[in-house]
Write a structure and sequence with these properties.
The complex is a heterodimer. Chain A is an all-alpha fold. Chain A contains 12 helices and 2 strands. Chain B has 2 domains: 8-240, Rossmann fold, CATH 3.40.50; 258-500, Rossmann fold. The chains are: A mainly alpha, B alpha/beta.
């Protein structure tokens, strides 16, 4: 049993699974990072991912196009993020309450729409998901090839998005605006940056990423929609934002760590240890908590996170 | 100067907040190449008037002309586009970002998709050389001193090519040496044809830096003077409407036994750096010890550790010869410490609770205020009503929320709570910051009464005049250490000023 762990196929499989399992977390974590960097905590993430998962699935089944499914998932994420922006940015309501409200709303809505469309079939409908794309030449390298370069297109895209997000935040004008709005909105306002608009756009961009992260679970690495398909990955992504100290590269590293643990527990389940499989399911979440305890003490939150911005209407 | 056309002309400006008229039909003009001071007490409407000019507040009435052209300023962006820059009292900087990022935000140069840090950095260095504002653009803002941060703010405005620079109480946070540097910069600015509005309530500074002074009181202009044709006494009268040169009835007292002893106290700040370093200080009975210093030199951490809300890393604090438990606010109260925190709204009071609840906050379990775990409100009313009378607290009642009180009255609530128990030690941290002259006088009198009663008082203040008026002995804090000490009779303001900027004897 233990010997199996050291076999090449096990390791190749594990690396492959790590990258696969990390993909939705990377999307959602990047989405939450851009949102929080602008000063908004989007606790709607879990619900947005679920709506992305559902919308992507139904859009694929009705249109027959997987990419159309991805597009619609991004779209629904943007719409829900707009709702979040309306509540928390423009009305200035509590970000906690607005976000949790969106998650509760989305959870109900996802099931409702699914039932409207499919009724309650005894066997859940399925689609034919994306196939892995082997990259020529690179995928032929032993160990690395099959594990790294025989992945889904969306996984490759997630890798490209990580440095892109870092470049956007640190090297572009819009990134500087996003960061300033999240740190000191008054400073941004006094130099003519539209604080609420910047926050809204960040939320919308983040929502699109969260939606795609959700769709990954139903039309890429999976072929059906279940109500618990997201399974707390939205919350994990929030933890990864803190773990990564609001940095895209470090956040993605956290996502990979979670993906690794998730992949590992799946594999351990398959090895036939004589313990309930729930214990294995627990592993990634448990270790996420432990990792967070270690890192989050040094976390430096964006200073204006959770604070709606209003021009002061009182003064000396 | 009268024949020249003004660069800014504000005509009958009116601004109303809810029911308070902050600006009532103010006329104000600014000319090219001058420093014009807006002088007035807190709440006189100086900052409001300038926030209107900066487009931050919408007008409720009146017209603004810039270089002869009527303008409609609906946001700071409009004002900046018209060449108006404003440096607020609370800096608008992001500490975690670099100087350069702070400067170019909203006015960035781009090269393709990306920010052009290189050419922007060169421009900042050039501006710095021209106006004597030398700051490395690549360092993070949190590493800079307050004076340097102000330079970043000025650079930020100059980077946007402003012709008109508004500075709101710019000297409040500076050491004497930094004030001299700032004035040099302001002079360099007007020499190059820019105009500066200098908001202040400090008479000597206004006399020193400005060409012209506009005095505001109660939201209206009371007078306008050329600096060369006025003097401090006249300005003081114009500003307050009466003679403000404070005369306190001050008895000579001989300090008694030590009541507060601080031995080798070290305290860390939020960043984990030592903010108070091995500090030793003794305060005696019947004595006021003034702790002077520019803000951010460890005063906050010192007072918080004495209050018991910040645990020191080492050292001993004794009250009446007995050690006080570290990091334990209840112990500090029980041993007879009266605590007046620097931030009355955040730390000192619970703004949503009533006046009486705030008054009994520290001893709600004593004096029969509670029985079987229930509050005895009759007793509390009685107690609070007496204190409200004794301390002349203006409030509609003892049961209304603290947030409806003015700053001076809020401070009196704190005084009532802290002093009613006849503490043997009083730590007063910035007790009159932001208060008007009347409230300030009252608090000064109360502190002197406490000293005469027999308390030992530690007065932490950035206001040198206050320190000189009240203290029997003055110490200066610089970078967490006491850098100098003098009896109030022998101390000179120049010497204290040198200590404040870190120059040892």
């Amino acid at each position: 049993m233990i010997r199996d762990i050291f076999q090449i196929t096990f390791i190749t499989g594990l690396i492959g699974a790590t990258l696969r399992m990390a993909t939705p977390i990377i999307f959602a974590t990047l989405g939450e990072i851009i949102t929080e960097r602008a000063g908004v905590l989007n606790l709607g993430i879990e619900g947005i991912m679920l709506m992305g998962a559902m919308t992507g699935f139904i859009a694929t089944i009705t249109s027959g196009s997987l990419w159309f499914g991805i597009l619609m998932a991004a779209g629904i994420g943007m719409i829900l993020a707009l709702l979040m922006a309306f509540l928390s940015v423009y009305l200035g309501l509590s970000q906690h309450v607005s976000g949790l409200g969106i998650t509760l709303f989305s959870t109900g809505l996802a099931m409702f729409v699914y039932r409207l469309h499919f009724g309650s079939p005894t066997v859940p409908p399925t689609i034919k998901p994306f196939d892995p794309v082997a990259i020529p030449l690179l995928s032929k390298i032993p160990v690395i090839g099959p594990s790294f370069f025989n992945q889904y297109s969306l996984t490759y895209i997630s890798w490209i998005l990580i440095p892109l997000m870092a470049l956007l935040l640190y090297k572009t004008n819009i990134g500087l605006k996003i960061r300033t709005v999240g740190e000191n909105p008054f400073a941004a306002d006094t130099v003519g940056v539209n604080v609420n608009l910047t926050r809204t756009l960040s939320l919308v961009a983040g929502g699109a990423l969260m939606g795609v992260g959700g769709a990954f679970l139903t039309i890429v690495n999976g072929n059906m929609f279940l109500i618990d398909v997201v399974g707390g990955r939205g919350w994990v992504s929030i933890a990864m934002v803190i773990f990564g100290n609001w940095d895209p590269l470090k956040g993605a590293l956290g996502a990979l760590l979670f993906g690794f643990l998730d992949g590992l527990q799946l594999r351990l389940q398959g090895l036939g240890f004589n313990v309930p499989f729930h214990l294995f399911l627990l592993i990634p979440y448990l270790l996420t908590i432990i990792a967070l305890i270690g890192v989050s003490r040094h976390a430096t939150y964006p200073s204006a996170l959770l604070k709606p911005y209003r021009r002061e209407e009182k003064g000396g | 100067m009268e024949e020249k056309k003004p660069v800014v002309e504000m005509r009958s400006i009116r601004k109303v907040f809810l029911d308070v008229i902050a600006n009532r039909d103010i006329d104000f003009s600014l000319y090219r190449g001058e420093v014009c001071s807006l002088l007035g007490e807190n709440g006189a409407g100086k900052t409001t008037l300038m926030n209107v000019l900066f487009g931050y507040y919408a007008l409720d009435g009146g017209e603004i002309y810039i270089k002869g052209e009527k303008v409609n300023l609906s946001s700071p962006k409009d004002a900046i586009d018209k060449g108006i820059g404003m440096i607020h009292q609370h800096f608008t900087l992001v500490p975690s970002q670099s100087v350069l990022e702070n400067i170019i935000i909203g006015a960035a140069v781009e090269k393709g998709l990306f920010l052009d840090f290189k050419s922007a950095g060169e421009r900042v260095v050039r501006l710095g050389e021209e106006f004597g504002l030398l700051i490395n653009p690549d360092v993070k803002v949190w590493t800079l001193s307050v004076g340097e941060q102000q330079k970043v703010e000025i650079l930020k405005a100059l980077y946007r090519d402003v012709d008109i620079l508004i500075m709101d109480e710019p000297t409040a946070v500076l050491a004497p040496k930094e004030i001299i540097e700032l004035f040099k910069t302001l002079k360099a600015l007007v020499k190059r044809g820019k105009s500066v509005v200098f908001i202040s309530h400090k008479l000597n500074e206004v006399m020193e830096i400005s060409d012209r002074i506009v005095v505001l009181r109660n939201g209206g202009v009371t007078a306008e003077r050329k600096t060369s044709e006025t003097n401090i006494r006249e300005l003081a009268n114009l500003m307050v409407g009466r003679d403000i040169l404070e005369k306190l009835d001050r008895k000579n007292m001989i300090p008694g036994k030590p009541v507060l002893e601080i031995e080798n106290l070290s305290v860390l700040n939020e960043k984990g750096l030592k903010a108070v370093k091995d500090l030793n200080l003794v305060v005696h009975k019947n004595e006021i010890v003034g702790v002077a210093g520019v803000s951010g030199n460890g005063q906050t951490e010192l007072s918080e550790s004495l209050f018991g809300i910040r645990e020191p890393v080492s050292g001993v604090v004794k009250v009446n010869g007995k050690k006080v438990k570290k990091g334990n606010p209840a112990a500090a109260i029980d041993m007879g410490m009266g605590r007046i925190p620097e931030d009355r709204i955040e730390t000192g009071l619970l703004m949503d609770l009533s006046v009486e609840e705030n008054i009994i906050l520290e001893n709600h379990l004593k004096h029969g205020f509670q029985k079987y775990g229930l509050m005895n409100f009759n007793r509390i009313h009685e107690f609070s009503d007496k204190l409200i009378k004794d301390y002349k607290i203006k409030t509609a009642g003892s049961d209304i929320a603290a947030k409806s009180l003015s700053g001076g009255n809020l401070q009196k609530v704190i005084l009532a709570r802290e002093l009613s128990g006849q503490p043997s030690v009083v730590i007063a941290s910035q007790p009159t910051r932001g208060l008007d002259v009347g409230a300030m006088e009252y608090i000064h009198e109360r502190l002197l009464e406490e000293r005469d009663r027999g308390a030992g008082i530690m007065l932490i203040s950035e206001d040198l005049d206050e320190v000189f008026t009240l203290s029997d002995r003055i110490v200066v804090m610089y970078e967490g250490e006491i850098i100098g000490e003098a009896g109030s009779g022998t101390a000179s303001k120049e010497q204290i000023g040198l200590w404040m900027s870190g120059v040892k004897k």
